[in-house]
Write a structure and sequence with these properties.
Elements: H1 2-28, E1 30-35, E2 40-45, E3 50-55, H2 65-95
Antiparallel strand pairs: 1-2, 2-3
Length: about 100
């Protein structure tokens, strides 16, 4: 029984190292989303940090600030959703069958 427990602990440590490596790789990834046909582009890293916002000059209209705000929100929400989806896909492989919803 004791040998079985040691083996299980080794397997858990191995899985933990793989999870940490996968998480580090996710954090290094770059994500991009745009709105308004490319008028607004938002880039972020896997840590959900916005790294760049690009706004095309022709979309800047002082009489329609709301449209620009909407495009920025749409692109930002899209890039954050991409990060969540990639994180769930990547980290989910470690929790399959463990019944641990919301772990990441």
């Amino acid at each position: 029984m004791k040998g079985n427990m040691n083996n299980m602990m080794k397997q858990m440590q191995k899985m933990q190292k793989k999870m940490m490596k996968a998480q580090d790789e996710l954090h290094e990834m770059s994500f991009e989303a745009s709105a308004g046909g490319g008028m607004v582009t938002v880039r972020a890293n896997g840590k959900k940090e916005i790294t760049d916002v690009e706004i095309k000059e022709e979309v800047v209209d002082p009489d329609d600030i709301e449209m620009l705000q909407d495009l920025i929100l749409a692109a930002t929400n899209d890039v954050l959703t991409q990060i969540d989806d990639k994180t769930n896909d990547t980290m989910g492989q470690f929790t399959k069958g463990m019944n641990m919803p919301g772990m990441f």
